[in-house]
Amino acid sequence: MNAITTTNNNYGAFSNAARSLSPTTKFVGAGAAAATIALFQSWVSVTDSDGISYSTSLSQDSAHVVFLAGLAAAVWAAWPALSGSLSKRRCVALTVAAAYVSGLAVLAFWQIHQVNAAIAQAGAASIDGIDVVEVGPAVGLLLYTAGAIAVCVGVVCAWRGALARRTTSCPFPPPQSPAVSFGA
């Protein structure tokens, strides 16, 4: 008879380490990773009058710095969650960083909407000799937005953890109601 042999791989160590991370760490880490990858993808899709689509990405290095600054601030604020929970100051810092990251995504969608509104009003627009009919988000902007949403979920987890810790570790005992007796 043939014996069945199995190989021992180290996937268990990775899954144990992932299980030990707090939800804040998981969401902020995954969101920041997804948003960073998105910076190098195409962000806007442009369709011309012939139906040909063109995609463009963030072309300026200064744009990458603006986006990476918010992501770095979010990771910095959430860093103590690796070994425990966040202080109130870190929760506030993480909230501000998430608002910044999310605001950039909202701004990008708003600019696409503004361009489409101008095209609708004028009938068409010409950019670098291309008759543009429609502008829309591409995979990079959608992935960045998903990363921003994940960071925001991490903020909610951080605040829930901070509030739960605050209410359970109150230094004062709960108030005792006076004993009431009914009848003999």
Summarize the entry for a quick read.
The protein is α+β, with helices and mostly antiparallel strands and 184 residues long.
Describe this structure as you would to a colleague.
With 184 residues, the chain is of the alpha+beta class. The chain has a single domain (21-166), classed as Butyryl-CoA Dehydrogenase, subunit A, domain 3 (Up-down Bundle). It has helices at 11-20, 23-38, 61-78, 88-122, 139-168; strands at residues 42-48, 53-57, 125-127, 130-137. The chain has a four-stranded antiparallel β-sheet with strand order 2-1-4-3. Strand 1 and strand 2 form a beta hairpin. Helix 2 runs antiparallel to helix 3 (61-78), helix 3 (61-78) runs antiparallel to helix 4 (88-122) and helix 4 (88-122) runs antiparallel to helix 5 (139-168). The radius of gyration is 25 Å and the shape is elongated. Mean pLDDT is 79; it is low at 168-172.
CATH architecture: Up-down Bundle
Number of helices: 5
State the separation between the terminal residues, measured CA to CA. Answer: 82 Å
Morphology: elongated
How many independent structural domains? 1
Rg result: 25 Å
Q: How many beta-strand elements?
A: 4
